[in-house]
């Protein structure tokens, strides 16, 4: 399989597992609201990273699948809450109305809470001997020292003068934490040693920074139709972005060097990490 | 120690552990907002239940303490989100302004998300051999078949004609799930067998139903100053309550019979469960 075929195979595996998640105890409209955002056709980057990391360390993707679903649920919850009127007040996401536009604010808040909690419920149902440790990785990444740290800085520092160390702090929390944790979880479930785990974390961190810098650049230069969301919002709202600190040309260079560092970090894996390398390179050329 | 002394001892243990929770990675105002609601002087009923259940099965409260903290964090998060303008729109809680009144809606949403996620982070840091199973109990209880199921029904059925089976469904999810799970978690951490676990769950369910029926009654008959929150809101908002279905006198009788059933369920524990029995009886006479 070439890179594109492998990416599609991972993505289909994650998509099928998400579709099949048991949610029969959720009453309506909670269940529909959760599924609306969870199954709205994202790239499944975080889920694919979980499976790919697991295979790169010689593991079985079936072991990693519940954790791939969990990280996608955590990502989906964060987008629902992020889009709320009290937060970024976004009405469009992946070309579709945001959750609160369709289901109202009350149900959107509950749907976010539901996806976050269900992520842990699904992980807790795993019988893999390393499940508890992998769960801890995702909890920390989603938590107050990870994603929620980034979100809080992002929301509260809007409109202040941007400096690169603050922007880095925001991007590390808001984006890199939840790209690093699935890599770490996949490796842990494969029984990887500390050398591989350390390499995987470095990969995830650089990939995450590059990913968010590219996201910042797309908000300036992207095409609304291709992105499925509005552009120019960051500047309008006074968001602290990478190009706002260093300018567009330097931001492009920084994204490239973080991708180079991500690729380099994978050395201990040998050719088993070729997919992860190609995934990092593809990040530079994504449209959404 | 008599009942009151033991209750105070458990409560102080939980309070001290909550105060000492590591949150140094949370940026301001996230950290303050989380601590504002978490340390606002609740009864710590759920935390005390965790410790008491653990001791009733011969366990050590030190093992149960992270889980007592976790259930209190989950409870605190649910109150923050429940009080939001889009949900119950409450401005007063335990005699103090609600989280969003003090910190604004955006930070209140993040503080709720932070407490929920931190609960799992704290549990995931436990090295107890039964930690993973105990975590699963809390995840399911807080999830879409438990508390979030109850919250959703509560929010979406407001103003409809109340019937007792729906109200029971709401109360089981909204209240009983998060009183049963700490009992089950405490027992699991003590290594209790299936007989004790089954008895503990029955206790928690009856206690939870009685607790919520008393809560419904207090909203009709309670004293604002003693309760620290507004009364009469349930009727005003068309909430589905137990007395609205069966009338006040029958609701009182139902609360009493659920307490009797809770006490009876504890038979397999013998006198080791005397504290849990006294706690159930005290529920009938609580003022807040």
Question: What labels describe this entry?
Answer:
homodimer, 288 residues, mainly alpha, Farnesyl Diphosphate Synthase, two-stranded antiparallel ribbon, 1% strand, globular
3D architecture notes:
In chain A, 70% of the residues lie in helices and 1% in strands. In chain A, a hairpin with a 2-residue loop joins strand 1 (92-93) and strand 2 (96-97). Chain A has helices at 3-19, 30-38, 45-56, 61-83, 99-103, 105-124, 131-142, 147-156, 164-189, 194-221, 224-227, 233-236, 242-246, 248-265, 274-283; strands at residues 92-93, 96-97. Chain A is an all-alpha fold and 288 residues long. Chain A has one domain (3-283): Farnesyl Diphosphate Synthase (Orthogonal Bundle). A two-stranded antiparallel sheet of chain A has the order 1-2. The two termini of chain A are 24 Å apart. Chains A and B meet through helix 2, helix 6, helix 7 and helix 8 of A and helix 2, helix 6, helix 7 and helix 8 of B.
